[in-house]
Amino acid sequence: MTAMLSFAGFAWRNVWRRRLRTALTLCGIAMGIGAFVALVGFSRSFERAWMEMYESSGTDLAVVQRTFLNTTVEESAGNTLRSLPQVEAAAPMILNMMAITPDVNTLVYGWQLDSFEFHSIEIRQGRRFRDSASEVMLGELLAESLNKKVGDALEIQGGSFTVVGIYHGGSALEAGAIIMPVAELQKLAGMEGKVTAFHLRLKPAAGESAQQRLKDGEAAIEAALPGLRAIPAAERASNNQLVMLAHAAAWGTSSIALLVAALGIANTMAMSVFERTGEIGILRALGWRRSRIVRLILLEAGALGVVGGLAGVLLGWLALRLLGSLPQTASIASATLSAATLIEAVAIAALVGVTAGALPAWRAARLSPVEALRHE
Fold it and tell me: 204: helix, coil or strand?
Protein backbone atom coordinates (compact mmCIF):
# COMPACT_ATOMS: atom_id res chain seq x y z
CA MET A 1 0.00 0.00 0.00
CA THR A 2 2.86 2.37 0.89
CA ALA A 3 4.56 1.63 -2.43
CA MET A 4 1.37 2.42 -4.34
CA LEU A 5 0.89 5.69 -2.47
CA SER A 6 4.52 6.61 -3.13
CA PHE A 7 4.11 5.82 -6.83
CA ALA A 8 0.92 7.91 -7.03
CA GLY A 9 2.53 10.77 -5.10
CA PHE A 10 5.53 10.70 -7.43
CA ALA A 11 3.19 10.90 -10.43
CA TRP A 12 1.26 13.83 -8.96
CA ARG A 13 4.51 15.68 -8.14
CA ASN A 14 5.52 15.36 -11.78
CA VAL A 15 2.15 16.68 -12.96
CA TRP A 16 2.29 19.69 -10.65
CA ARG A 17 5.92 20.51 -11.47
CA ARG A 18 4.90 22.95 -14.24
CA ARG A 19 1.98 24.54 -12.46
CA LEU A 20 0.93 27.09 -15.07
CA ARG A 21 0.92 24.53 -17.87
CA THR A 22 -0.93 22.04 -15.69
CA ALA A 23 -3.49 24.67 -14.65
CA LEU A 24 -4.13 25.62 -18.28
CA THR A 25 -4.53 21.95 -19.20
CA LEU A 26 -6.98 21.44 -16.34
CA CYS A 27 -8.97 24.46 -17.55
CA GLY A 28 -9.20 22.89 -21.01
CA ILE A 29 -10.43 19.59 -19.60
CA ALA A 30 -12.89 21.37 -17.31
CA MET A 31 -14.31 23.31 -20.26
CA GLY A 32 -14.73 20.13 -22.29
CA ILE A 33 -16.39 18.16 -19.48
CA GLY A 34 -18.43 21.22 -18.49
CA ALA A 35 -19.78 21.43 -22.04
CA PHE A 36 -20.58 17.72 -21.93
CA VAL A 37 -22.43 17.95 -18.59
CA ALA A 38 -24.36 21.08 -19.57
CA LEU A 39 -25.34 20.03 -23.09
CA VAL A 40 -26.07 16.38 -22.39
CA GLY A 41 -27.83 17.29 -19.15
CA PHE A 42 -30.03 19.78 -20.98
CA SER A 43 -30.88 17.29 -23.74
CA ARG A 44 -31.84 14.68 -21.13
CA SER A 45 -34.04 17.27 -19.37
CA PHE A 46 -35.69 17.86 -22.74
CA GLU A 47 -36.35 14.13 -23.05
CA ARG A 48 -37.83 14.01 -19.54
CA ALA A 49 -40.16 16.88 -20.46
CA TRP A 50 -41.55 14.80 -23.35
CA MET A 51 -42.11 11.88 -21.04
CA GLU A 52 -43.94 14.10 -18.55
CA MET A 53 -46.21 15.32 -21.34
CA TYR A 54 -47.26 11.80 -22.25
CA GLU A 55 -47.66 10.74 -18.63
CA SER A 56 -49.77 13.76 -17.66
CA SER A 57 -52.20 13.18 -20.54
CA GLY A 58 -52.37 9.42 -20.01
CA THR A 59 -51.14 8.60 -23.51
CA ASP A 60 -50.27 4.91 -23.94
CA LEU A 61 -49.26 4.74 -27.60
CA ALA A 62 -48.34 7.12 -30.40
CA VAL A 63 -49.21 6.05 -33.94
CA VAL A 64 -46.84 7.41 -36.62
CA GLN A 65 -45.53 6.54 -40.05
CA ARG A 66 -43.04 3.66 -40.22
CA THR A 67 -40.56 5.73 -42.22
CA PHE A 68 -38.33 8.20 -40.39
CA LEU A 69 -38.56 11.06 -42.88
CA ASN A 70 -42.31 10.92 -43.54
CA THR A 71 -43.89 11.82 -40.23
CA THR A 72 -47.44 12.58 -41.42
CA VAL A 73 -50.41 10.27 -40.99
CA GLU A 74 -53.70 10.35 -42.91
CA GLU A 75 -56.36 11.81 -40.64
CA SER A 76 -58.83 9.22 -41.90
CA ALA A 77 -56.82 6.53 -40.07
CA GLY A 78 -58.52 7.74 -36.90
CA ASN A 79 -61.76 5.95 -37.82
CA THR A 80 -59.94 2.62 -38.06
CA LEU A 81 -58.09 3.21 -34.79
CA ARG A 82 -61.28 4.05 -32.89
CA SER A 83 -62.96 0.89 -34.17
CA LEU A 84 -60.34 -1.39 -32.61
CA PRO A 85 -61.52 -3.12 -29.40
CA GLN A 86 -58.23 -2.34 -27.61
CA VAL A 87 -58.51 1.43 -28.17
CA GLU A 88 -60.36 3.62 -25.70
CA ALA A 89 -59.60 6.98 -27.37
CA ALA A 90 -57.60 8.14 -30.40
CA ALA A 91 -56.67 11.82 -30.55
CA PRO A 92 -55.21 13.27 -33.76
CA MET A 93 -52.53 15.87 -33.14
CA ILE A 94 -50.12 18.09 -35.04
CA LEU A 95 -46.84 19.34 -33.66
CA ASN A 96 -44.93 22.17 -35.28
CA MET A 97 -42.30 24.75 -34.40
CA MET A 98 -43.24 28.27 -35.49
CA ALA A 99 -41.86 31.79 -35.21
CA ILE A 100 -44.30 33.96 -33.27
CA THR A 101 -42.08 37.04 -33.17
CA PRO A 102 -38.58 37.66 -34.56
CA ASP A 103 -37.24 36.64 -31.14
CA VAL A 104 -39.69 33.92 -30.08
CA ASN A 105 -40.02 30.45 -31.60
CA THR A 106 -42.40 28.07 -29.89
CA LEU A 107 -44.05 24.69 -30.18
CA VAL A 108 -47.56 24.78 -31.60
CA TYR A 109 -49.95 21.89 -30.94
CA GLY A 110 -53.02 21.14 -33.00
CA TRP A 111 -55.70 19.33 -30.95
CA GLN A 112 -59.36 18.54 -31.32
CA LEU A 113 -61.82 20.10 -28.88
CA ASP A 114 -62.76 16.70 -27.43
CA SER A 115 -59.16 15.39 -27.15
CA PHE A 116 -58.33 13.57 -23.93
CA GLU A 117 -55.05 15.50 -23.93
CA PHE A 118 -56.90 18.47 -22.41
CA HIS A 119 -56.85 16.48 -19.16
CA SER A 120 -53.14 17.29 -18.84
CA ILE A 121 -53.63 21.07 -18.67
CA GLU A 122 -55.47 23.40 -16.31
CA ILE A 123 -57.17 26.45 -17.82
CA ARG A 124 -56.37 29.39 -15.56
CA GLN A 125 -58.12 32.09 -17.60
CA GLY A 126 -60.73 31.98 -20.37
CA ARG A 127 -61.91 28.79 -22.04
CA ARG A 128 -61.08 26.13 -24.61
CA PHE A 129 -60.98 27.07 -28.27
CA ARG A 130 -63.75 26.04 -30.63
CA ASP A 131 -63.01 23.59 -33.43
CA SER A 132 -62.40 25.27 -36.82
CA ALA A 133 -62.28 28.71 -35.18
CA SER A 134 -59.32 31.12 -35.37
CA GLU A 135 -58.70 30.79 -31.66
CA VAL A 136 -55.68 29.76 -29.62
CA MET A 137 -54.74 28.96 -26.05
CA LEU A 138 -51.38 30.04 -24.61
CA GLY A 139 -49.27 28.42 -21.93
CA GLU A 140 -48.64 30.64 -18.93
CA LEU A 141 -44.93 31.08 -19.67
CA LEU A 142 -45.56 32.03 -23.28
CA ALA A 143 -48.42 34.40 -22.39
CA GLU A 144 -46.13 36.17 -19.93
CA SER A 145 -43.30 36.32 -22.45
CA LEU A 146 -45.55 37.76 -25.17
CA ASN A 147 -47.48 39.94 -22.69
CA LYS A 148 -50.76 38.52 -23.97
CA LYS A 149 -54.07 38.03 -22.14
CA VAL A 150 -57.47 36.58 -22.98
CA GLY A 151 -59.11 38.55 -25.78
CA ASP A 152 -55.86 39.74 -27.36
CA ALA A 153 -55.02 39.07 -30.99
CA LEU A 154 -51.99 37.00 -31.96
CA GLU A 155 -50.53 36.79 -35.46
CA ILE A 156 -49.14 33.41 -36.48
CA GLN A 157 -47.67 32.79 -39.93
CA GLY A 158 -49.67 35.66 -41.40
CA GLY A 159 -52.98 34.59 -39.81
CA SER A 160 -54.78 36.44 -37.01
CA PHE A 161 -55.94 34.43 -34.00
CA THR A 162 -57.78 35.38 -30.81
CA VAL A 163 -56.37 34.28 -27.47
CA VAL A 164 -59.29 32.60 -25.70
CA GLY A 165 -57.48 30.81 -22.88
CA ILE A 166 -54.38 30.83 -20.69
CA TYR A 167 -53.45 27.44 -19.27
CA HIS A 168 -51.03 25.79 -16.88
CA GLY A 169 -49.24 22.95 -18.71
CA GLY A 170 -48.81 19.45 -17.44
CA SER A 171 -45.23 19.48 -18.75
CA ALA A 172 -42.54 22.04 -19.55
CA LEU A 173 -43.15 21.55 -23.28
CA GLU A 174 -46.78 22.62 -22.93
CA ALA A 175 -46.16 25.49 -20.50
CA GLY A 176 -44.45 27.57 -23.18
CA ALA A 177 -46.53 26.44 -26.16
CA ILE A 178 -49.62 27.31 -28.18
CA ILE A 179 -52.62 24.99 -28.56
CA MET A 180 -55.02 25.58 -31.44
CA PRO A 181 -57.67 23.61 -33.37
CA VAL A 182 -56.09 20.87 -35.43
CA ALA A 183 -57.96 22.10 -38.54
CA GLU A 184 -56.44 25.58 -38.19
CA LEU A 185 -52.92 24.23 -37.79
CA GLN A 186 -53.46 21.98 -40.81
CA LYS A 187 -54.12 25.13 -42.88
CA LEU A 188 -51.08 26.97 -41.51
CA ALA A 189 -48.75 24.00 -42.04
CA GLY A 190 -50.21 22.91 -45.40
CA MET A 191 -51.25 19.54 -43.95
CA GLU A 192 -54.91 19.34 -44.95
CA GLY A 193 -56.17 15.82 -44.27
CA LYS A 194 -52.99 14.85 -42.43
CA VAL A 195 -51.73 14.93 -38.84
CA THR A 196 -48.36 14.38 -37.18
CA ALA A 197 -49.54 11.41 -35.12
CA PHE A 198 -52.43 9.87 -33.19
CA HIS A 199 -52.12 9.63 -29.42
CA LEU A 200 -53.99 6.65 -28.02
CA ARG A 201 -55.39 5.53 -24.71
CA LEU A 202 -55.92 1.80 -24.44
CA LYS A 203 -58.75 0.08 -22.62
CA PRO A 204 -57.72 -1.64 -19.39
CA ALA A 205 -57.80 -5.43 -19.62
CA ALA A 206 -58.51 -7.56 -16.55
CA GLY A 207 -55.63 -9.82 -15.55
CA GLU A 208 -53.28 -8.38 -18.18
CA SER A 209 -50.06 -6.55 -17.35
CA ALA A 210 -49.47 -3.04 -18.65
CA GLN A 211 -46.61 -4.31 -20.80
CA GLN A 212 -48.75 -7.02 -22.37
CA ARG A 213 -51.58 -4.54 -22.95
CA LEU A 214 -49.20 -2.30 -24.89
CA LYS A 215 -47.90 -5.23 -26.97
CA ASP A 216 -51.42 -6.38 -27.81
CA GLY A 217 -52.40 -2.84 -28.74
CA GLU A 218 -49.33 -2.42 -30.95
CA ALA A 219 -50.01 -5.71 -32.75
CA ALA A 220 -53.68 -4.90 -33.37
CA ILE A 221 -52.94 -1.40 -34.69
CA GLU A 222 -50.13 -2.47 -37.00
CA ALA A 223 -52.24 -5.34 -38.35
CA ALA A 224 -55.16 -3.00 -39.08
CA LEU A 225 -52.96 -0.22 -40.55
CA PRO A 226 -49.87 -1.85 -42.11
CA GLY A 227 -48.26 1.46 -43.11
CA LEU A 228 -48.24 2.78 -39.56
CA ARG A 229 -46.29 2.02 -36.41
CA ALA A 230 -47.57 2.06 -32.82
CA ILE A 231 -44.91 3.22 -30.35
CA PRO A 232 -45.15 3.17 -26.54
CA ALA A 233 -45.12 6.66 -25.03
CA ALA A 234 -41.77 6.11 -23.26
CA GLU A 235 -40.10 5.09 -26.52
CA ARG A 236 -41.71 7.98 -28.38
CA ALA A 237 -40.39 10.41 -25.75
CA SER A 238 -36.79 9.31 -26.29
CA ASN A 239 -36.88 8.66 -30.04
CA ASN A 240 -38.83 11.54 -31.54
CA GLN A 241 -36.97 13.75 -33.99
CA LEU A 242 -36.62 16.80 -31.72
CA VAL A 243 -35.14 14.76 -28.86
CA MET A 244 -32.80 12.88 -31.20
CA LEU A 245 -31.67 16.20 -32.70
CA ALA A 246 -31.04 17.61 -29.21
CA HIS A 247 -29.01 14.53 -28.22
CA ALA A 248 -27.02 14.62 -31.47
CA ALA A 249 -26.25 18.33 -31.09
CA ALA A 250 -25.23 17.85 -27.45
CA TRP A 251 -22.90 14.92 -28.14
CA GLY A 252 -21.48 16.51 -31.29
CA THR A 253 -20.65 19.82 -29.64
CA SER A 254 -19.26 18.27 -26.46
CA SER A 255 -17.17 15.82 -28.52
CA ILE A 256 -15.40 18.74 -30.18
CA ALA A 257 -14.73 20.30 -26.78
CA LEU A 258 -13.41 16.96 -25.46
CA LEU A 259 -11.14 16.58 -28.50
CA VAL A 260 -9.61 19.98 -27.76
CA ALA A 261 -9.13 18.91 -24.14
CA ALA A 262 -7.45 15.67 -25.28
CA LEU A 263 -5.02 17.61 -27.46
CA GLY A 264 -4.19 19.79 -24.46
CA ILE A 265 -3.40 16.75 -22.31
CA ALA A 266 -1.35 15.16 -25.11
CA ASN A 267 0.68 18.35 -25.51
CA THR A 268 1.25 18.64 -21.75
CA MET A 269 2.40 15.02 -21.42
CA ALA A 270 4.60 15.22 -24.53
CA MET A 271 6.34 18.30 -23.17
CA SER A 272 6.65 16.66 -19.76
CA VAL A 273 8.32 13.58 -21.26
CA PHE A 274 10.70 15.72 -23.33
CA GLU A 275 11.72 17.84 -20.33
CA ARG A 276 12.20 14.75 -18.13
CA THR A 277 14.19 12.66 -20.57
CA GLY A 278 17.19 12.61 -18.29
CA GLU A 279 15.08 11.75 -15.27
CA ILE A 280 13.45 8.90 -17.17
CA GLY A 281 16.95 7.65 -18.06
CA ILE A 282 17.87 7.61 -14.37
CA LEU A 283 14.71 5.67 -13.51
CA ARG A 284 15.49 3.15 -16.25
CA ALA A 285 19.08 2.84 -14.97
CA LEU A 286 17.73 2.22 -11.46
CA GLY A 287 15.80 -0.77 -12.77
CA TRP A 288 12.41 0.66 -13.73
CA ARG A 289 10.92 -1.44 -16.48
CA ARG A 290 9.32 0.06 -19.54
CA SER A 291 5.90 -1.04 -18.35
CA ARG A 292 6.35 0.96 -15.15
CA ILE A 293 7.35 4.05 -17.10
CA VAL A 294 4.20 3.63 -19.18
CA ARG A 295 2.10 3.28 -16.03
CA LEU A 296 3.66 6.43 -14.58
CA ILE A 297 2.88 8.57 -17.63
CA LEU A 298 -0.62 7.15 -17.98
CA LEU A 299 -1.27 7.74 -14.28
CA GLU A 300 -0.19 11.36 -14.66
CA ALA A 301 -2.43 11.82 -17.71
CA GLY A 302 -5.33 10.05 -15.99
CA ALA A 303 -4.91 12.25 -12.91
CA LEU A 304 -5.13 15.33 -15.09
CA GLY A 305 -8.29 13.94 -16.66
CA VAL A 306 -9.99 13.10 -13.36
CA VAL A 307 -9.17 16.40 -11.62
CA GLY A 308 -10.19 18.36 -14.71
CA GLY A 309 -13.33 16.21 -14.97
CA LEU A 310 -14.39 17.00 -11.40
CA ALA A 311 -13.90 20.70 -12.07
CA GLY A 312 -15.87 20.28 -15.31
CA VAL A 313 -18.80 18.67 -13.48
CA LEU A 314 -19.00 21.73 -11.24
CA LEU A 315 -18.75 24.01 -14.27
CA GLY A 316 -21.48 22.10 -16.10
CA TRP A 317 -23.75 22.20 -13.04
CA LEU A 318 -23.31 25.99 -12.85
CA ALA A 319 -24.16 26.24 -16.56
CA LEU A 320 -27.36 24.26 -15.99
CA ARG A 321 -28.21 26.54 -13.07
CA LEU A 322 -27.79 29.49 -15.42
CA LEU A 323 -30.01 27.88 -18.08
CA GLY A 324 -32.60 27.21 -15.39
CA SER A 325 -32.70 30.92 -14.54
CA LEU A 326 -33.21 32.15 -18.12
CA PRO A 327 -36.85 32.69 -19.23
CA GLN A 328 -36.25 30.90 -22.54
CA THR A 329 -35.03 27.66 -20.96
CA ALA A 330 -36.28 27.79 -17.36
CA SER A 331 -39.18 25.43 -18.06
CA ILE A 332 -36.90 22.66 -19.38
CA ALA A 333 -33.43 23.00 -17.88
CA SER A 334 -32.83 21.22 -14.59
CA ALA A 335 -29.76 21.66 -12.41
CA THR A 336 -30.28 18.20 -10.94
CA LEU A 337 -27.59 15.82 -12.14
CA SER A 338 -28.08 12.08 -11.86
CA ALA A 339 -25.38 9.88 -10.39
CA ALA A 340 -25.09 8.18 -13.80
CA THR A 341 -24.30 11.52 -15.48
CA LEU A 342 -21.65 12.35 -12.88
CA ILE A 343 -19.98 8.96 -13.17
CA GLU A 344 -20.18 9.13 -16.96
CA ALA A 345 -18.56 12.58 -17.04
CA VAL A 346 -15.65 11.66 -14.75
CA ALA A 347 -15.14 8.34 -16.58
CA ILE A 348 -15.00 10.15 -19.92
CA ALA A 349 -12.50 12.64 -18.47
CA ALA A 350 -10.28 9.82 -17.21
CA LEU A 351 -10.53 7.99 -20.54
CA VAL A 352 -9.67 11.16 -22.46
CA GLY A 353 -6.65 11.67 -20.21
CA VAL A 354 -5.34 8.12 -20.53
CA THR A 355 -5.94 8.05 -24.29
CA ALA A 356 -4.18 11.38 -24.77
CA GLY A 357 -1.24 10.17 -22.67
CA ALA A 358 -0.81 6.90 -24.55
CA LEU A 359 1.57 8.21 -27.24
CA PRO A 360 3.81 10.16 -24.85
CA ALA A 361 3.90 7.10 -22.58
CA TRP A 362 4.94 4.87 -25.48
CA ARG A 363 7.66 7.32 -26.50
CA ALA A 364 8.96 7.54 -22.92
CA ALA A 365 9.11 3.75 -22.64
CA ARG A 366 11.14 3.50 -25.85
CA LEU A 367 13.93 5.69 -24.47
CA SER A 368 17.08 3.70 -23.75
CA PRO A 369 18.82 4.52 -20.44
CA VAL A 370 22.09 5.50 -22.16
CA GLU A 371 20.47 7.87 -24.69
CA ALA A 372 18.23 9.39 -22.03
CA LEU A 373 21.15 10.09 -19.69
CA ARG A 374 23.05 11.79 -22.54
CA HIS A 375 20.11 14.09 -23.22
CA GLU A 376 20.85 17.72 -22.42
Answer: coil
